[in-house]
Request: fold
Amino acid sequence: MNTRALHAYLLLLPALALLAAFTHWPALATVIDSFMSTAKPNRPSVWVGLDNYQQLLEDPIFWQALRNNLWFALGTIPLSIGLALLMALWVNQRIGGRAFLRLAYFTPTVLPMIAVANIWLFFYTPTYGLLEQVGSVFGAQSRNWLGDPASALAAITVVAVWKEAGFFMIFYLAALQGINPSLREAAAIEGTGRWFYFRRVLWPLLMPTTLFVGVNAVINAFRMVDHVFVMTRGGPDNATSLLLYHLYEVGFKFWDQGYAAAITVVLLALLATVALLQFFVLDRRTHYQ
Reply:
């Protein structure tokens, strides 16, 4: 190894050490722990093989949390991406108050999720909440949005979309500003309508951004736990229990670390599969040479 290569490795060494210590080793340790029992005061942790995964397969709350998370992802991903694209298209135009609109759309992103959850708790409060006050003007009946299993998951989905859409808008806005204006001018000369120009020109050019935003949206949908903890704590009757919140309960409330590690491995495998599918299958259709 020559001096230049040695110098390069020495420069990378601090970053590699931090990456190994705080990413790779914890992931490997979690996989190992998923095959171990939870240590007790008078009983050390022992190898139990696939017992934790067997318990996972037989756990009805896990399957309900998985279903809830899938519905939550199906609600938040397309809505947040679609809303972000619409907002970016709007604020990219030359309109009055454009800077204010950009700031207003992005503001929910910079708010802590705990603060956002408390704001929406006020909106959803039965009888006294903002939604109830507005609904009473139009004669709507009072409803406990977070206390009804039929509406609780949809209610927290709205909160997640409201917070994430502004963040995704920034990426779309940057992508739109990077597109050559001559393409729009050429389309206008040809008599192309706005919808045809968006569908045939803008949308294909925005596909790499959409892929990036989609990967982040999937990750966010499966790592969301803050507002669930504040607003519903997984209730009512586990109607809003998501995978990460169920993992938190198992690991820190019931202190079953072996089972929590098994849930973590399944969650990481699920996210890795989705990410690989998006990058290696969809990526071929999004970049044009």
Residues 49-109+153-285 form a domain with the MetI-like fold fold (CATH 1.10.3720.10).
